[in-house]
């Protein structure tokens, strides 16, 4: 979404606030929320939203779980597969939320713990060794070892401050993938023992099976996952308000202060790390069983960024927020996959961003009108001097066909022109955040046009690339505009 | 002996590249206490910018300008592109977060890195490209040191890095802006109160660090050939390791760390196996951090409350 919504300028930095040594007293949620209670909801949905606010968390969870339980009846069989993917992402996001959202540790090795659980399960429940451990034995062992691995990794980083932790765990992620890809034979133990299957991974993993009840269909997977997530949410909800949960948030907000309150900071960090790793490892076993195989490519940094995007978008630290984030981030790639839906999403997002960001109405009208006029002008000029520019075929879908007569669908040289347009659109989007007043309109009009040009000619056909661009931009924009995420709680610095 | 010398030379070349990259990491960390994950992407764009200049001027086989001028233009082009990206990154992704929590700029940096990688994928597509340096500078030209023959390009990289490092050291120690950089890195608030324009210093830091990354990118591409959209990631991590091993925040430390990491990698590849390359580098990092968390040349900083 580089077209329109780049971070607006924040006020100039307060000269007293240093980067390294916080001079404020601390960070507090409660103070930040003190003004909130005065603002009521407005509009038609206000009574429903007010009623929802008064519901106990348990009832909210029950409503959400019931709604989720109806999903397999409402969607096509393929849709259940997507829903399972979303649930897995949600579970991972819940686990990451413990480490990042509550304890404030930037754990970039999270995806490796997920991979560890998946590979462990695949090795003990397939023809690889061959071994077929009963699920009820395998699961606790894997969860235990995942947590233990988390403790080990965080022990190595015990003396280190946040940034070193991030980089070491990132290395851990990379090393993990490297190990499973290269060490299919144990070098010193046995030459015949193929442990990880190398680049080919391990196919044919057993499904979960509890005393004869085999979980082998999409619907069964879905309901088991849903039940597990509900249990996890209840556990995490209780953990969050427990002594440990409060201590985690205390060290997130101010390590030094927490230490002075005699909190065992190191042990708490270790515990958070282990808890996150155990949840990730557990999710890994489900993933291996659902996909009936594990492959090194499933545990790369791209997936790590996906989990992070879910946590950050929804609001790190908030359970409902993280779930919402997982829903959006998990469903997005599916939308992008079909050019028709992706187009709808793109223009809808663009419009919403414009409506939210451009304040006086007449300026919004000016921008929208300007873009339309600008497009026709470009088309006229192009048709006059370079007829080749309009010979391409539009992408499928209603919107794209509608726009075919307006935006240039390039025939030749599509690559080089869209490359230039891409750079110009990013430069324009960045410039919009700097300039003021009507200049903003003047910059926005060509920027939006170029964005649409790039979208219709290239991006709509490259869903995975679009997703990468989107997630990257999302992390940057969220951090600048709304670091607390959609449902997270704002924290203010008390000085 | 010959093999050992060869590997040492490889290590020196690789180390030069890492050192240049590590300086950028270290300078930015020294001033902002920010791990700039996207630094490797700046390096990658530098390598592509050099490739662009090379292609525009007729390609390696039949350049339209003399080779020395072509090389200078390639380095200049990559420095311009890289520093432009670096400065824009600081202005739009990091400056708005200057007073937020520690974790926010880190996540933003990951986002920038991811975004730049995807942009490179969009702009240059996924394939490998190569500078085809042997066509540009014949592989037989060079100097002979004892039993081994050193290709001119490698000499260029090693000598060029040494020159850049000396210049940078002089600049940081002697010039007014260099002193301001050191002052801000030492204590930002105090420097600000003494009238140092902190924003200016930060921009200059990103400018120089990114320009060095660009140089490093072109050097890598000249010696090792292949460039691709993912190249910055691993190189960035190695350079970061170099910066930490040398002592993050210290410029001589970054140079030393870069050379060490380069050597370690070359010897691992030569004597053990290239599979273990990353494992060894990682192990070295953990070892240094456990024994001397401030790095080899870093000084322990007391946190004032």
Quick check: average pLDDT of chain B?
87
Helical run tally of chain A = 20
Q: What are the low-pLDDT stretches of chain A, counting only 5+ consecutive residues below 50?
A: 1-24
The first-to-last residue Cα distance of chain B is: 55 Å
**Biggest beta sheet attributes of chain A:** 2 strands, antiparallel
The global form of chain A is: globular
Helix content of chain A: 55-70%
**Helical segment count of chain B:** 12
Structural class of chain A: mainly alpha
Radius of gyration of chain B: 19 Å
State the separation between the terminal residues of chain A, measured CA to CA. 36 Å
Most extensive interface between two protein chains, with residue counts: A-B, 60 and 56 residues
Structural class of chain B: mainly alpha
Describe the structure.
The complex is a heterodimer of chains A (495) and B (305). Mean pLDDT of chain A is 81; it is low at 1-24. Chain A is globular. Chain A is 65% helix and 5% strand. A two-stranded antiparallel sheet of chain A has the order 1-10. Chain A has 495 residues and is mainly α. With 305 residues, chain B is mainly α. Chain B contains twelve helices and four strands. Chain B is globular and about 55 Å long. At the A-B interface, α8, α13, α18 and α20 of A face α3, α4, α8, α10 and α12 of B.
């Amino acid at each position: 979404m580089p077209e329109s919504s780049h971070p607006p300028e924040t006020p100039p930095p307060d000269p007293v606030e240093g980067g390294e040594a916080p001079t404020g007293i601390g960070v507090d949620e409660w103070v930040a929320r003190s003004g909130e209670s005065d603002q009521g909801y407005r509009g038609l949905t206000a009574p429903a939203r007010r009623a929802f606010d008064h519901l106990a968390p348990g009832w909210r969870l029950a409503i959400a779980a019931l709604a989720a339980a109806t999903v397999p009846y409402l969607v096509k069989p393929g849709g259940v597969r997507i829903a399972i993917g979303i649930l897995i992402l949600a579970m991972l996001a819940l686990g990451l939320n413990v480490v990042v959202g509550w304890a404030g540790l930037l754990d970039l090795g999270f995806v490796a713990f997920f991979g560890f659980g998946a590979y462990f399960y695949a090795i003990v429940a397939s023809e690889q060794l061959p071994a077929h451990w009963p699920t009820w034995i395998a699961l606790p062992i894997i969860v235990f070892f995942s947590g233990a691995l988390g403790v080990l990794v965080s022990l190595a980083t015990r003396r280190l401050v946040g940034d070193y932790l991030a980089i070491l765990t990132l290395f851990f992620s990379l090393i993990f993938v490297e190990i499973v890809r290269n060490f299919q034979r144990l070098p010193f133990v046995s030459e015949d023992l193929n442990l990880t299957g190398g680049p080919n991974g391990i196919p044919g993993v057993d499904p979960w099976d509890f005393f004869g009840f085999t979980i082998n269909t999409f619907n069964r997977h879905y309901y088991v996952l849903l039940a597990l997530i509900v249990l996890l949410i209840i556990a995490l909800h209780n953990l969050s308000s427990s002594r440990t949960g409060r201590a985690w948030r205390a060290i997130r907000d101010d390590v030094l202060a927490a230490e002075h309150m005699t909190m065992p900071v190191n042990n708490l960090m270790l515990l958070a790390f282990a808890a996150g790793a155990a949840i990730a490892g557990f999710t890994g076993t489900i993933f291996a069983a659902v996909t009936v195989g594990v492959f090194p490519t499933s545990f790369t940094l791209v997936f790590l960024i996906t989990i992070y995007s879910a946590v950050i978008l929804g609001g790190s630290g908030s359970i409902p927020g993280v779930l919402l984030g997982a829903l959006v981030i998990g469903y997005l790639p599916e939308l992008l996959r079909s050019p028709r839906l992706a187009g709808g999403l793109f223009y809808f997002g663009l419009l919403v961003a414009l409506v939210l960001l451009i304040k006086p109405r007449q300026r919004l009208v000016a921008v929208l009108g300007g873009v339309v006029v600008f497009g026709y002008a470009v088309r006229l000029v192009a048709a006059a001097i370079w007829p080749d520019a309009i010979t391409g075929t539009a992408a499928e879908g209603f919107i794209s066909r509608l726009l075919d007569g307006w935006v240039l669908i390039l025939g030749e040289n599509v690559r080089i022109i869209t490359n230039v347009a891409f750079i110009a659109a990013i430069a324009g989007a960045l410039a919009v955040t700097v300039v003021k007043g009507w200049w903003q309109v003047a910059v926005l009009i060509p920027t939006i046009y170029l964005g649409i040009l790039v979208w219709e000619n290239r991006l709509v056909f490259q869903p995975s690339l679009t997703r990468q661009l989107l997630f990257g931009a999302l992390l940057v924009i969220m951090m600048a505009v709304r670091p607390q995420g959609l449902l997270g709680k704002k924290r203010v610095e008390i000085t | 002996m010959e093999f050992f010398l060869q590997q040492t030379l490889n290590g020196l070349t690789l180390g030069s590249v890492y050192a240049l990259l590590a300086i950028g990491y270290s300078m930015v960390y020294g001033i902002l206490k920010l791990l700039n994950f996207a630094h490797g992407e700046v390096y990658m764009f530098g390598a592509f910018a050099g490739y662009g200049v090379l292609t525009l001027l007729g390609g390696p086989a039949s350049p339209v300008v003399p080779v020395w001028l072509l090389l200078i233009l390639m380095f200049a082009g990559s420095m311009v592109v890289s520093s432009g990206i670096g400065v824009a990154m600081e202005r739009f992704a990091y400056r708005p977060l200057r007073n937020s929590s520690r974790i926010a700029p880190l996540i933003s940096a990951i986002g920038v890195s991811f975004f730049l990688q995807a942009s490179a994928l969009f702009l240059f597509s996924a394939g490998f490209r190569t500078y085809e340096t042997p066509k540009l500078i014949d592989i037989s030209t060079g100097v002979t040191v004892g039993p081994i023959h050193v290709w001119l390009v490698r000499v260029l990289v090693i000598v060029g890095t040494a020159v850049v490092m000396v210049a940078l050291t002089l600049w940081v120690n002697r010039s007014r802006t260099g002193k301001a950089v050191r002052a801000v890195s030492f204590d930002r608030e105090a420097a600000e109160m003494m009238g140092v324009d902190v924003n200016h210093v930060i921009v200059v830091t990103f400018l120089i660090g990114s320009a060095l990354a660009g140089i490093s990118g072109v050097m890598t591409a000249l010696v090792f050939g292949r460039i691709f959209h993912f190249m910055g990631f691993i190189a960035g991590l190695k350079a970061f390791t170099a910066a930490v091993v040398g002592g993050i925040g210290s410029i001589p430390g970054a140079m030393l760390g870069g050379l060490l990491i380069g050597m370690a990698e070359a010897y691992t590849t030569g004597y053990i196996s290239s599979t273990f390359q990353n494992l060894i580098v990682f192990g070295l990092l953990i070892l240094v951090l456990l024994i001397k968390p401030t790095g080899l040349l870093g000084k322990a900083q007391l946190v004032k409350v």
